[in-house]
Amino acid sequence: MNRIGKLLVALFVLACCLVFAGALAGGLMDDSAFTQAAKDAAH
User: Fold this and answer.
1) Closest of 18, 37, 16, 34 to residue 26, by C-alpha
2) pTM for this one?
3) Do 23 and 29 form a contact (C-beta atoms < 8 A)?
4) What is the SS3 string spanning the chain?
5) Which residues form the signal peptide (predicted)?
6) Which residues in 1-37 are b (16+ Cβ under 10 Å) and which e?
7) What are phi and psi of 14, to 5 degrees?
8) 20-35 confidence digits (pLDDT tens)
């Protein structure tokens, strides 16, 4: 894999980490998402 390919992979991984950190900081993965009502709605 050439340098550009490695750079693209590294940037993609970094972007995924930033999105995940933003989701945690923004409360998108709140405990209320895992209530019994939410589990019932998923079925």
Assistant:
1) 18
2) 0.55
3) yes
4) CCHHHHHHHHHHHHHHHHHHHHHHHHCCCCHHHHCHHHHHHHC
5) 1-25
6) eeeeeeeeeeeeeeeeeeeeeeeeeeeeeeeeeeeee
7) -65, -45
8) 888 777 766 666 666 6
